[in-house]
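Good morning N.,

You mentioned wanting to compare the apo and holo forms, so I went ahead and generated the holo version with adenosine-5'-diphosphate. This is what I fed in:
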Amino acid sequence: MAISVGIDLGTTFSAVAYIDPKTKLPQIIPNGEGSKLTPSVIQFLDGEVIFGGEAEDAYNAGEEDCVATFKREMGETKPYCYIGGKPYTSEDLSAMLLRHLKEEAEATLGDTIKEAVITVPAYFYSKEREATIRAAEKAGLKVKKIIDEPNAAAMAYGLNHWRENANILVYDLGGGTFDVTLVHMGKNGELSTITTRGNHKLGGRDWDARIEDILVARFENETDLSIRNDSELWSIVSGMSEGVKKQLSAQNMQSVKVSATFPDYGKATVTITKAEFEENTADLLDRTGALCLAVLEEAGLTKKDVTDVLLVGGSTRMPQVPEYLQRMFNKKPLSHVNPDEAVALGAAIQSSKANEDYTSLVLKVVDGKKTTDRANFGLSSHVSVKAERKLNSLSMLTLRETTAHAMGIIAINDEGNRYYNEIIIPANHPRPVRAAKKFRFYTSPHSNNELAIYVLQGDSEDPLDCQITYKYVVTGIQHVNRGEKIGTVIRIQYSYDVNGVIHIQARQEDGTVDLPIRREEVPEDISRFGRPVTSENTDQGFNVGLQLGTRSGQSVVHKYKPVTFSNVKWDKYDNIATHPSGAQFNEPTVHVIANEENIEFHGYNISEMNEGVRYSIDPSDDFEIECDINTSTISPHPGGYLEISLGLISAHLTENGGDILLDGASVATVAPRFHLRMSLTDGGQYEVEIDGRAVGSKFKASKSRVDVRFGFVHESHYCQLLSHAYISDISMMQAVGGEGDDNPDTDTWND
Ligand code: ADP
Ligand code: MG
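and this is what came out, ligand included:
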């Protein structure tokens, strides 16, 4: 019978556990050497690959071709090391280690492993989680789920120590990473993560490095050797530092004598005291403390609301850790779980359970920033914590994890001059979760319409302070012309799956199938996102946020904002007053009535007029105008015409209609009444559409400003009758930065 296991794939130690079919309780599966923990170290020895304890010994002895702590660079595409000239990424090395763990566990149990729940630091980004999944698959494991290490530890603890309404702060200090997570024990064995924070690059190794500094200085003093600048001498000292740390961490140890034998010198002995060690590492502890407070602040709780602190990770065996936390929280931290084993045991519990369903987004805006609404998390500090009990069975325990990082997209602000992180799913939101948004934007009837989305992970408003996860390009978007409103609408769905991995999907507004999406690596140089938005920034294929590329290599900011006559400064232009014979007109009244829906030109007693409205735009400001035009009412007055111009697009329309010109050439002949759509996008792409049909397009990159004009021209003298023309149902869209209304929520979908 194939079994499911939980695997703690640690930076320094890994462990595998399963649910013992007899006891129905989680249990560690010892490795081939009979140990519960396997050092995460690999040695490449003359074509042979050695794992675990033996490899670790070789590594500590400074032997060559040993690799350790590779989890620290999980998700990086560049090699972690070269062995015999061959590159290995962290993912490759993790795959090798996972295969070894799997094979050893199978040998111990005499059974095959069907699938696994694998743990990762809560702070792992989507890319690191994906790399972990790929590594497991390469190792021949089916990944049932990725869960966060602190959550796994809390499960292992909660099984035997359930206290309804308790808030448990899980403090996980491992070899290379630190995670702190606040979990809440709800009713009926419902365990939920509230908030989580972490530091990827803080762990036992940093304490080792401080010991190494002290030892190197002390041995140099003692021997007059230049140890720091000699890699051989230095590795002798550095190989001892972890052992010295462990000795200093043993009970009642006040100081440790350390001896080393140096070539050409001989043996030297120095002493290091526990007090020195603590003094030299106090700042590291403070860094963990600051993250504990941050987690509480985000949860809206105080130190008093923490029911208990749970210690996880080998580094919590340093006595200063529980002492520090006891001072901070005024209570003795729990050490009910074995800090090295709890994570694997919790993963084993999860491996026996079904994965959770998607939840919908629960948001609250605080100081203009989107955050997770925790009103229903039952966190109130007034609720009393119930007595501890054992849960009767594993099936009673359920886990709801949260997202450590907010997910956002790069967008352009309302003023159109700065990039920012538009948060879609806030940090500390229960997962799996989906959110879908509608976007309206300009598309071309001719081209292959594409939309680029840069997805970020992080809370900062500055995109460069966040991790830019991927650039997603939505392809095959169909141009939609719905007459009354300009722009094609597509729905974009952003999700964090059960594993904390990001997915992006897109559909046309009324579509029932997903549009194809291409995922691209983020360009190396992303410094532009930190600089003001300029036309250079946006027209060199450097799409940002939600943008559209209608031509290869070209793309434009495509977030359109409707502009109306009331908020756009249209200059009225006329030359009637300056006409040399203007004085002879007894009643030269011309009315240009421009409001949000119409431009009407009325003339009475018109002699010669050339009057209208004008709006000047920058060519990098994409713009489009859609309107219904009626020139039939000009008819009593031959000679009068309606004049339209938008850069290269122009028209001269009489009571019988006329020609629409693109760069001087006719692209369509229209009747007096027609629906016109004109646009200028991509910093020079002109498009004309008549009655819903594309009639022509032309690219003319121009840096000069473009006039949009609607005018009425009448050259006949002394017309005593009324002349008028209408342009109605005008809608104009101008490309601008993100506006809240541009991306309203829409229903999510799940297939
Ligand atoms: P990870 O999950 O990152 O693999 P672990 O939780 O297994 O890490 O913890 C490994 C770290 O714990 C190492 O830095 C190791 O030196 C440290 N550690 C293990 N035992 C002790 C001990 N007795 N005293 C001090 N540090 C210890
Ligand atoms: Mg660990």
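Residues 407-411+429-558 form a domain with the Substrate Binding Domain Of DNAk; Chain A, domain 1 fold (CATH 2.60.34).

Happy to go through it together on a call whenever suits you.

Best,
F.
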